[in-house]
Amino acid sequence: WTIIPNGIDLDVFRPDVPKPPEIRGDMPSILFLGRFDPRNGLTTLIESFRKVRGKKRQAQLVVVGDGPLRKHYHRVAGNDPDITFVGAVLKERPSYYAHSTVYACPTTKASFGITLLESMACETPIVCSDILGFRDVVKNEREALMTHCGDTTELADALVRILDDDDLASPLGKVGRERAQRYSWQSVTSAVLDVYAAVLGRVPTGA
């Protein structure tokens, strides 16, 4: 069999997009983007976020997403002024990736890391769970820092590394954007056509 990955529109997901008003400019921002589902690890991230902040480190957690568990996660967050719930967004997703310091994805189960690709295309470094679906997209210390599922201390430590070290964060983002190119719709479409050509036993038209 031939495995062809999902594609991404690199003209939509890119670094040079407008900044959304919810992301503050006076402190680094950690982005969560996903459906409000326990497996997406938002509770773990909120607990880790509280460990990230300190007397000498300010940060904002920007939560993009929605779902039936909205009230539950608002209760978990309490009235923390540095946790901003944006709600569900669609067209504006690239702006949140591009203007966040780091994208955090503590998901416990995923078949493919499409949100990782979106973040990579926007040149934003990633901290994510070390799970099978994500290992197909990113590699630890290359475009992401990968942590064990549910480990709030390890997640917090990884976030701190990126927030405090631009010499680490910047290369992760740049490598991510570069590697996202192979998931462009042009590349994915060519791979699909190659499979059809192989099945039909002839050379692709564009070859």
What does this structure look like?
With 207 residues, this protein is an alpha/beta fold. Helices cover 39% and strands 13% of the residues. The protein is built from eight helices and six strands, in the order βαβαβαβαβαβααα. β5, α5 and β6 form a beta-alpha-beta unit. α1 crosses α6 (152-164) and α4 crosses α7 (166-180). The radius of gyration is 18 Å and the shape is globular.
Highlighted features:
alpha/beta; 39% helix; six-stranded parallel sheet; 207 residues
Structural class: alpha/beta
Q: Helix proportion of residues, in percent?
A: 25-40%
The count of DSSP E runs of length 2 or more, i.e. the number of strands, is 6
Low-pLDDT segments, ≥5 res = none
The overall pLDDT, averaged over residues, is 93
Q: What form results from the Cα inertia axes?
A: globular
State the order of secondary-structure elements, H for helix, E for strand: EHEHEHEHEHEHHH
Strand content: 5-15%
Number of helices: 8
In the sheet with the most strands, the strands line up as 3-2-1-4-5-6
Largest sheet: 6 strands, parallel
Concise account of the structure shown:
The protein has 207 residues and is α/β, with parallel strands linked by helices. 39% of the residues lie in helices and 13% in strands.
